[in-house]
Specification:
The complex is a heterodimer. By secondary structure, chain A is mostly helical. Chain A is about 80% helix and about 0% strand. Chain A is elongated and about 125 Å long. The longest helix of chain B has about 50 residues. By secondary structure, chain B is mostly helical. The chains are: A mainly alpha, B mainly alpha.
């Protein structure tokens, strides 16, 4: 009985199986093509938005793309575009995350790596930036001399940002000063090195001591000349008022105690301020050069990759 | 072919509906992208104009008037039908006004007859020009434009002419000069007697302390406290008088502009 019941289905199945399989294959292929079409359309739309300087809108569109059914190449395209759009919109951390997801097989892999390293350097993570570029080294062909020079230049700049002067000097030896993408920047980097190396480190103790002898002199010594003068005038005025009060009313007078206290506060405050001024001046100096270095690291990247 | 055509129509309609729904839900950023998508995927001028208007509304709701101006300027030269181009020009003037670029508003309204020949401008544009001229303190031109606007409305009973009493603005340099030579006078001139009295008192206190100290042979105190106090408050008083006059003028202009705007808008209904 059981065998009889099964027989009709066995006889029908071979005749239905082929069309069913064909239909499934057709639908699957149609679904796949539709997904691919949808993906490329979204990518083109995001590009269109980016061309219109609508970076945040482009990021919004790209972030909403479902990556589950995408091929590795499509994923690379998506991550690269998202990273690039975020870079344009100055969302550097988002940019780094996405650029680093790009796989080595992607044609713009080098660009993704170099820019993610630059973004890391810009965000103050200089060690990570250097590590990213060093990982990249073995992927650059010996024959690609321009890219090699750029790679070396970026590492040299990051070494300067890290204040690793021997490391910079080592890289500088490989500067040609003749590459069309970074000859000027190489020259400027050399100047920055000279300036950074030649920066005179002042002593906070000495600055405090100078201000104790002549109010404001410590700030002058620290390189804050205007602040030095600005500190000198009120302290000297208070000193004169205190002296006048002492001379006319004596040590126990309210006038002397009042002006004397004020003078003491300003005088001690100025000594403390002078010791801090040394650190502030140093930070300002380094920050100014960091900005210059980062700017000059960026120009060759854009020259080469764009 | 017919199938593709129908699909495209349904797709566009769905996109338009989605953009409108996002706008209604107050999600202006997403709605703006949805309208941009309509522009990206559509070549039908009708749909494009609807998308331009939709996106402009989103940008206005977001307070992004300058980006709205840039966006509209990019579409201004597009060969749409005359009425649609006039609509874009109208929105451009509105966004320029909302963005506070009053010189540009006057210029854009004046260019209307040349760029939109045959299309009469909306009355609101005339009002925007008058208000912009007020903001620029070009009272005579504003008054002329105002009277032309009222005449063009052909009203049975003309409303009171507000430009017979244009705001009397005070001179900043006069306030400065007054405060320099007579302490507190600049503040009085700016209509702030309280501040004027305070300024007089503190400057007088400085002088008094200086003189008193001098008489008691506290010469250092006379100079470093009395004279320094007087000098500091005197210079501050001059600067303060300048700020107060600027504030006074701004307040007067806003009040007058508000009166003009209320009257003119009431005439539109």
């Amino acid at each position: 009985m059981r065998g009889n019941r099964c027989r009709p289905s066995h006889t029908i199945w071979p005749s239905v199986r082929l069309p069913a399989l064909l239909l499934f294959a057709l639908l699957f292929s149609f679904g796949l093509r539709a997904q691919q079409f949808e993906f490329s359309k979204e990518l083109r739309f995001a590009q269109y938005l980016q061309d219109k300087d609508a970076g945040p809108e482009a990021i919004h569109v790209l972030e909403r793309i479902d990556t589950t059914g995408l091929s590795p190449v499509q994923k690379d395209s998506l991550f690269f575009m998202l990273g690039w759009a975020a870079y344009g919109a100055k969302r550097l951390d988002t940019s780094i995350i996405n650029l680093l997801k790009v796989s080595p097989d992607f044609p713009l892999y080098n660009k993704a790596r170099f820019f993610s390293a630059y973004c890391e350097a810009f965000q103050g993570r200089r060690d990570t930036a250097a590590a990213l570029l060093l990982q990249q080294q073995h992927r650059i062909s010996e024959r690609d001399t321009t890219l090699l020079e750029l790679h070396n230049f970026e590492l040299a700049g990051i070494a300067l940002l890290q204040r690793d002067y021997p490391g910079y000097k080592e890289r500088e030896k490989r500067f040609t000063f003749s590459s069309y993408i970074d000859s000027k920047e190489e020259q400027r980097m050399k100047d920055y090195y000279d300036k950074l190396k030649g920066f005179r480190h002042r002593s906070p103790v000495l600055a405090g001591l100078y201000s104790a002898i002549v109010p404001g002199l410590g700030k002058f010594y620290a390189g804050k000349k205007k602040q030095g003068i600005a500190a000198f005038l009120p302290i000297i005025s208070l000193a004169a008022l205190t002296y006048e009060a002492y001379r006319k009313d004596g040590v126990r007078s309210a006038r002397f105690i009042g002006f004397g206290s004020l003078f003491s506060v300003f005088y001690i405050g100025n000594i403390w301020g002078s010791t801090l001024a040394v650190k502030i001046r140093k930070n300002e100096f380094y920050k100014a050069y960091d900005t210059k270095i980062l700017f000059d690291l960026h120009i060759p990247l854009r020259n080469f990759f764009n | 072919m017919t199938c593709i055509f129908l699909c495209a129509i349904f797709l566009t309609e769905a996109q338009t509906e989605q953009a409108a729904a996002l706008y209604q839900a107050g999600r202006y950023f997403e709605a703006s992208i949805a309208w941009e998508r309509v522009l990206f995927e559509n070549n039908d001028p009708h749909q494009q104009v609807a998308a331009i208007q939709g996106k402009t509304e989103c940008l206005k709701q977001e307070g992004l008037f300058d980006p709205a101006v840039s966006f509209l300027e990019n579409w201004q030269a597009f060969p749409f039908p005359d009425s649609d181009r006039a609509g874009i020009h109208y929105q451009l003037i509105l966004c320029t006004y909302l963005g506070g670029h009053f010189e540009s508003v006057v210029s854009l309204v004046d260019r209307w007859p040349h760029e939109q020949a045959g299309v009469s401008p909306a009355p609101l544009l005339g009002i925007l020009k008058i208000l912009s001229l007020n903001e620029l303190e070009r009272w005579k031109e504003a008054g002329d434009a105002y009277r032309s606007f009222i005449a063009a409305r052909q009203l049975s009973a003309a409303p009171p002419d507000l430009y017979t009493q244009i705001p009397h603005l005070k001179s900043v340099s006069k306030a400065e000069a007054l405060s320099t030579f007579i302490p507190g006078a600049g503040q009085f001139y700016a209509g702030r007697p309280g501040e004027a009295i305070f300024s007089i008192l503190v400057q007088a206190a400085g002088i008094y302390f200086g003189v008193l100290s001098f008489e008691q042979h506290y010469y250092v105190s006379a100079w470093l406290i009395g004279a320094a106090l007087f000098g500091a408050f005197h210079m501050g008083g001059v600067r303060r008088a300048e700020v107060l006059v600027q504030r006074y003028n701004r307040k007067k202009t806003i009040a007058f502009n508000e009166k003009v705007r209320t009257q003119l808008l009431s005439l539109l209904h």
